[in-house]
Write a structure and sequence with these properties.
Layout (H helix, E strand, L loop, with lengths): L2 E9 L9 E8 L6 H9 L7 H19 L5 E3 L3 E9 L13 E10 L1 H8 L3 E3 L3 H22 L2 E4 L8 E4 L1
Parallel strand pairs: 1-6
Antiparallel strand pairs: 1-2, 3-4, 4-5, 7-8
Helix pairs in contact: 1-2
Length: 171
């Protein structure tokens, strides 16, 4: 299985006075996995734990991780990586002037483990059409099929004798 990507054109820099566009790669996600999906996947690997037990463990882990993060702790899950918070703020002229209104956001960050970063760097890549190109191709295919179906269907009148009901069917 490969990481799929498509090509997209966008401005080289939003700060540049030259409105030069360059082509970049954009990762395409095939699907999203929920906690239940991951638990089902883990239990399919000959786990001695049931899917329900794994769901419970994952949900407990999520709650515990959040408990620590909202206290400002860093949570390091060795092979998975570390979760931590950062703060984005506007600058104040002095420490006396600074108050919480200067804080713009609290951000959640994840730093993958060294091993995980290494493995993802060697992942296989495959270029695919962009979502926009896919939608366009699907629309063209549907329009073609609709046109062909309309061409193939010819109205035929059945019945219609005096006292009978006439019906028209498309064949």
């Amino acid at each position: 299985m490969a990481i799929e990507y498509s090509l997209t054109s966008r401005l080289a820099s939003i700060y540049s006075k030259k409105k030069k566009k360059l082509v970049y790669a954009a990762a395409q996600r095939r699907q999203t996995f929920t906690t239940d999906d991951i638990a089902r996947h883990i239990s399919s690997h000959n786990s001695v734990f049931s899917e329900g037990t794994i769901v419970g463990l994952l949900r407990d882990a999520q709650r515990c991780i959040m408990e620590h993060l909202v206290k400002g702790d860093r949570v390091d899950l060795e092979e998975l990586g570390a979760f931590y918070t950062t703060i984005a703020s506007r600058g104040a002229k002095s420490t006396e002037e600074f108050d919480e209104s200067y804080i713009k956001s609290i951000n959640l960050r994840w730093l993958p483990s060294r091993d995980m970063r290494k493995k993802i760097q060697y992942a296989e890549l495959r270029q695919v059409p962009s979502r926009c190109e896919q939608r366009k191709a699907i629309k063209e295919m549907k329009d073609f099929v609709d046109t062909e179906v309309r061409k193939a269907k010819k109205p035929q009148v059945q019945g219609g004798e005096e006292g009978e009901t006439a019906s028209i069917s498309l064949q």
